[in-house]
Amino acid sequence: METLIKPEKKRYLSIDVFRGLTVAVMIFVNTTGEYMGLPAWSHHAKDYGLTYVDLVAPFFIFAIALTYHMFYKSGHVKEGWLQNNLRVIRRYFALVGIGFLGGGIVDMILQKTIHPIYNWGVFQAIGMAGLVTLLFINLPRWWRLAAGILLWVTYQYLLVTFKLDDINFTEEHSGFWGGLGYGIMMLLATVVCEAFETGRMYRFLAGGAVFTAAGIVTSFYWGISKNRLTGPYIFIALGLACFFFYAIWYLYDKLQITQGRSSFFAPIGKNPFFIYVFYGPLTLIPLLFIQFDSPWYQASFFGLLNVFIMWQVAAFLDRKRIYISI
Question: For the residues of 49-90, what is the DSSP string, one character each?
């Protein structure tokens, strides 16, 4: 992990806002997720179905995909093929390691045990997704699309034939096989996001429409399930992420409704790694004051409080121009 003090440079405000909003919602739902007083639509769907909570992880995957290809190309020019790939490999393996370490510590506290716990969490899923995408990122856009679709078909076939969706269902964040599903999602997302990279937003929007439609059609056969990480879920989550980001891009970059500034979401979006890693202990604060069956407004209060605290931290780091990444 390194701390960088960066000079000012032109950024897409929409990317920072999208990242910041995604991380803010992630903090909220991870703080409140264990409290049963919240309505069902503020929890993950129990099996098949879709709530806004089920879209948080895919939106985070999409946020990475937005800049994956352009950063890879930039690194290829600056560092050369070997060093660039080694850097990317180290980064995503580090995310897997941080996920096992940090998540294990939090779970040990929650379960009040001294024995190591190695659940599969968000960081492991992101790390595996980044490594899967790396295998294909140097290919032209249409070849990446073909590879992604072929992987999707193979993945869904394995889920159905070998009941791997049942294994996903029993694992935290769908486990290892779910990580492969998130990798397919990220790979396909880089295809759509290349339209954003080249300024062809009509293609970006069309890609979102195609994936959303594909998710809806295939859901009649295999269903939409975040816990099982089904193929239709991959498609529809990717399509909805496209629509949501397009709306943010249109408001913040095209119309510039905030005159190129965002004092709340953008600071969080500039430091997503730091904020997500270090907010974890805050999720333990509600345990000191409320029970798991407490009313929804009590859990929501602590969720919003944690978002506010991390926003203050992110705003401070942004004023100091300190951005922490791996």
Answer: S--GGGGHHHHHHHHHHHHHHHHHHHHHHHH-HHHHHHHHHH
128 or 175, which is more confident: 128
Rounded CA separation 144/263 (Å):
36
What is the rounded distance in angstroms from the CA atom of residue 35 to the CA atom of residue 24? Answer: 18
Annotated domain spans of the chain: 2-325
Cβ pair 182, 195 in contact under 8 A: no
And the tokens for 63?
Answer: 């946020």
DSSP secondary structure string for all residues of 189-221: HHHHHHHHHTT-HHHHHHHHHHHHHHHHHHHHH
Total count of residues recorded for the chain:
326
Q: Which residue has the tokens 């203050």?
A: 312
Q: Which helix (H) or strand (E) holds 306?
A: helix 296-319
> Are 272 and 326 in contact, with CB atoms under 8 Å apart?
no
Nearest 5°: phi and psi at 63?
Answer: -60, -40
Q: What value does the mean pLDDT of the chain take?
A: 90
Among 199, 209, 217, which residue's Cα sits nearest to residue 240? 209
CA 152 – CA 144 distance, rounded (Å): 12
Q: How far is CA 323 from CA 49, 65, 93, 135, in A?
A: 37, 19, 20, 28
Average pLDDT over every residue of 163-179:
87
pTM for this predicted structure: 0.91
**pLDDT of res. 1:** 47
